[in-house]
Amino acid sequence: MHEDKVIPLKNPGTPAPVADALTELAREGAQRMLAAAIEAEVAAFLERFKDEKTADGRQRVVRNGHLPTRSIQTGVGAVEVTVPRVRDRAKTIRFTSAILPPYLRRTKSLEDLLPWLYLKGVSTGDFQEALTALLGQEAPGLSASTISRLKETWKDEHQRWSRRDLSNRRYVYLWVDGLHFGVRLEDAAQCILVVIGATADGRKELLALADGYRESEASWREVLLDLKARGLTVNPHLATGDGALGFWKALPQVYGTTRGQRCWVHKTANVLNKLPKSQQPKAALHEIWMAATRPEAEKAFDHFLTGYRPKYPKAVACLEKDREALLAFYAFPAEHWIHLRTTNPIESTFATVRLRTAKTRGCVSRGSILAMVFMLVKSAERHWRKLNGIPRLAQVIEGVVFKDGVQEDVEKVAA
User: Fold this and answer.
1) Where residue 173 sits, what CATH number does that domain have?
2) β pairing state of 259-262 and 238-241
3) Which is nearest to 134 in space by CA: 67, 40, 37?
4) Of 191 and 190, which is predicted with more confidence?
5) Residues 174 and 273 in one domain
6) What per-residue confidence (pLDDT) applies to 298?
7) For FRET with 15, which of 77, 255, 308, 386 sits at 20 to 30 Å CA-CA?
């Protein structure tokens, strides 16, 4: 994706976000990270005593269920946690969690919990700092091995997810993008390729998250072929993405009937960047994508081309070359237009993910950044809004023809 400034599209019909959605996300993230961190701590403790045996040859230090669930008060509310119980058959070795000691009932620094959830978690140093923020500067036992185990659980979860069977899945629409983060990767040309899909019941799901090379055709083709090999054989009906992606060359090689829709956010930014600042407010590009019908959009499109071509041919060429792909959404239900015109399902999620990874220092491995981003996105996924007009999705799947967002046969009857 180009490093152009992204201009958000305004839509008066977009509902206001739920006020406490971020708090709920933080709470769920805190609970999940605490559980994983404590499991890693227990595993490290058992590993230390793995060679210890009882007189009759049995393992001396073993797991023994869990302690009662406790509620820890944090800056994002009460977080329920459960600590595994460890048993020493000789009754001399005792496990006490350094991350969550028995006496802890509230975090010592409530304000420091959010940086742990949102800004930390990639490098070993950041993990240690984040866990220290939960308990205070004198928190014991935050060893590098415990932190490394926690990161490995994230990597394993991402790898299992990346190999999951998709043969029973059906996606009507796709949103795709190649994203770069404010961290120094092993290879500066690396980026993360993201695919989000809309299911037949209107839910958005993270479909693919993989590293790529400069958003190239080869990298995108590999991602799409992997999806198909794991069972995603039915072609989606429409894919929305930035025009700069190698995705558009790879798509017809794998899903030949999937139509392409260029993102109006990216296109608006690209066109405005080719106009002087004095002309940018006058470039009424929104009159094109907000038109009620395709003929009206075509008219607004031509009006822009005619007015700007003499003085600003580069801006006109940038818009004109993707004309058909920019207007593809008119052949789909009007209820879905708000979702299909942009890659907002990706941009809105990854804007916050970028903020959370931007403070990571040093060189980060591909596995670490993928695992970090995966965990953050999967947590956010639970709060993604469903598509408008869910019943229309079944009609799209059945092949019902839509013209200007209206089912064509219904329109003819009305006429």
Assistant:
1) 3.30.420.10
2) parallel
3) 37
4) 191
5) no
6) 97
7) 77
Of residues 146 and 210, more confidence is placed in: 210
Neighbours of 408 (CB within 10 A): 13
396 and 379 housed in the same domain:
no
Among the residue ranges 5-9, 27-31, 255-259, 289-293, the one predicted with the least confidence is: 5-9
User: What's the CA gap between 220 and 249, in Å, rounded?
Assistant: 9
Burial of 10 (0-12, 13-18, 19+ CB in 10 A): exposed
What is the total count of domains within the chain?
A: 3
- Among residues 160, 187, 211, the one where a domain terminates is 160
- Cα-Cα-Cα-Cα dihedral sign, residues 364, 366, 367, 372: positive
Does some domain include residue 5? Answer: no
Taking phi first (over 0 means left), then psi (-120 to 50 degrees means alpha), and beta for anything else, what does residue 85 get?
A: beta
pTM of the model: 0.69
Q: Is the dihedral of CA 48, 53, 58, 64 positive or negative?
A: negative
pLDDT, the chain, mean: 79
Q: In this structure, are 328 and 290 located in the same domain?
A: yes
Q: Residues 286-313: what's their mean pLDDT? A: 95
Q: Does the residue 11 lie in any domain?
A: no
pLDDT for position 15: 43
Q: Both 241 and 322 in a single domain?
A: no
Q: Name the amino acid, one letter, at 197.
A: G
Token pair, residue 175, equals 């949103």
pLDDT over 70, % of the chain = 72
* CA separation for the pair 38, 150 (Å, rounded): 9
Give yes or no: residues 62 and 156 share one domain: yes
Chain Cα centroid distance, residue 188: 21
Alpha helices (H) in 142-200, listed in sequence order: 144-162
Q: What are 116's two structure tokens?
A: 């742990």
**Do 270 and 4 touch, CB atoms closer than 8 A?**
yes
295 touches 330 (CB < 8 A): no
For 371, residues 6+ apart whose C-beta sits below 8 A from its C-beta are: 151, 154, 155, 157, 158
- In the predicted model, is pLDDT for residue 1 greater than 60? no
Residues 36, 88 within the same domain: yes
What range defines the domain where residue 324 resides? 264-341+389-415
